[in-house]
Amino acid sequence: MLTLPLSAMANEEEASKALQRPPVISLQSEAFAEVEQDTVTIYLAAEFDDAQQANVDKKLREALEAVLAEGRKQEVVKVSSGNYRIYPNSDRKGAITGWRGRAEVQLESTNIPAASELAAKVSKDMPIAGLSFSVSPEERAKHEEALTEDAIKRFQSRAKQIASSMGYADFRLNEVNVGGSGGYYRPPMMRAMAGDAGSFKAMGSESMPLESGTEQVSVSVNGSVYLLGGK
């Protein structure tokens, strides 16, 4: 009588179970939509030069306060101060010849005409240095909710198609991960505009015409499924 060691019997049992396990495949699906950018961010900047550091600081503070004061008169546009910097100008020998400063303010709103109008009002104190458009978190979340349902349906349809093509009657979910389009996307501010605050002249009371574009919002579903009912 032949007796197999316990370890050999265990290995045979594991091998038998492995043969009985249904095959697993990995797959991915994605749903996306072009969404209109409903938010504008306008960057304002003022720059001054003077022989005295205190004078540069005074001019920057006056411009900054004028813009912030105008911003407090309304509640539609979010107004926030940005970078504030004063640095020396030097000659070839390293001696300080004067001072230069820059102050920045950021306007952000889903009411694009209102943001444009406010930027025009304060342009005499702080001209436009750049702007960008984006999709608001609320609008992005609304579209991602609908896209998630679509992406899941695509995942299930693809799993069923693959199972059928490989000769299996059905499938069972093993692992699934659902992900949105990631972090809040904002196109970078144009460097050429940001580098020269004087490139935009004061516009008085006239608002600058602005037109937003679109942005792709997507949701992906990836995971693996068991193939069942092999022929």
Q: What features would you describe in this structure?
A:
- With 231 residues, this protein is an alpha+beta fold.
- The chain has two domains: 23-38 and 135-195 and 207-231, 2-Layer Sandwich (Translation Initiation Factor IF3), CATH 3.30.110; 40-134, Alpha-Beta Plaits, CATH 3.30.70.
- It has five helices and seven strands; from the N terminus they run αββαββαβαβαβ.
- The strands form two sheets. It has a four-stranded antiparallel sheet.
- Mean pLDDT is 84; it is low at 182-205.
Question: What's this entry about, in short?
Answer:
The protein has about 230 residues and is an alpha+beta fold. Helices cover about 35% and strands about 40% of the residues.
Name the features.
Translation Initiation Factor IF3, 2 domains, three-stranded antiparallel sheet, Alpha-Beta Plaits, 5 helices
pLDDT < 50 stretches: 182-205
Domain module count: 2
The share of residues in extended strands comes to 35-45%
State the strand order across the main sheet. 3-4-2-5
The helix/strand series, from N terminus to C terminus, equals HEEHEEHEHEHE
- Total number of beta strands: 7
Mean of all residue-level pLDDT scores? 84
